[in-house]
Amino acid sequence: MRFTIEAVKSDVGDALQKKIDQKTKPLGALGELEAIALKIGLIQQRTDPVLQMPSLLVFAGDHGITKEGVSAYPQSVTHQMVLNFLNKGAAINVFSNQHGLHLRIVDAGVDHDFDAHPDLVQAKIGRGTDSFLHGPAMHVENCVKAMEKGASIIDELHKEGCTILGFGEMGIGNTSSASMLMSLFCGLPLVDCVGKGTGLDDDALKHKVTILEKALSFHSDRLDSDDPYAVLSTFGGYEMAMMCGAMLQAASLRMVVLVDGFIATATFLAAFNIAPEIKDYALFCHVSDEQGHQKMLDHIHAKPILNLGMRLGEGTGCALAYPIIQSAVTFLNEMASFDSAGVSERGTTIN
Length: 351
Description:
Blueprint: H1 13-21, H2 32-44, E1 55-61, H3 77-86, H4 91-99, E2 102-109, E3 120-122, H5 140-159, E4 164-170, H6 174-186, H7 202-219, H8 228-235, H9 238-252, E5 256-259, H10 262-274, E6 282-284, H11 293-299, H12 316-334, H13 338-341
Helix pairs in contact: 1-2, 2-12, 4-12, 5-8, 5-9, 6-8, 6-10, 8-10, 9-10
């Protein structure tokens, strides 16, 4: 696949920075809010950026690696949680409703047949991936098909007027997939990338590391680790592949990309290895309490907005960071300048 993502231009950078500096405040006094405002203005190439139809997509898929005992929860929890999302009972429903985000759930590859629902995007590529312990999780063709479907979902949202979009996920076993992607894309030992996921005890965590190390060893002679498509199809999930395509397409359409936690960031690493320019369009919403997330953020020199000790997934970090992002754009557009308020600027001589 080919995504055309242009590096963000600096054409309006000086005008944006001047507008920020002329607000009725000391220079830099709003800290990271100023950086966020500047970044969104640059993405949209305007000094009065707009957050229109803020949305959040939660991609769901099952993982064959769960058969190897790497998760504290059974695979059936994936479809049960999707039903919980559709019944508006999950944390992401609460936070999305609180902050005015349009929430949609995407069935990318859940081993369950869902009834039609207005908040559900039926995009199933397969009924879960294969175990990557002794073979690839999915065929490259299906990985690309998932990415293309993710891109088409973004096309529709863009047509509806969406300018800012958060990415979340649901899939029992997907911390294992994310750990594999992280190890290969960051060049780190697996033991530094594997965490407790849904709540493994110490013995279960050791088992998880052993299984993933066996999988990595099995594929080491067969895998081109410099090929992000190969890495994603070998170890990823349908929801991760679809999210990857969606992230890339959102950036190609100059939308603001909000990245959630451990799994979403591992997926972003795949997108980043396909098109490094995507980073210009991304805001990293929080640092997860999952072991390894901070290392991923460090690898791509990304600074998270929040650190709340969360490791829930679902896009909850995006939903909680959104009002801060909204505040950054609001101050830029609505706060008085020294001139309009009749307030003397720094260094002005008052007679």
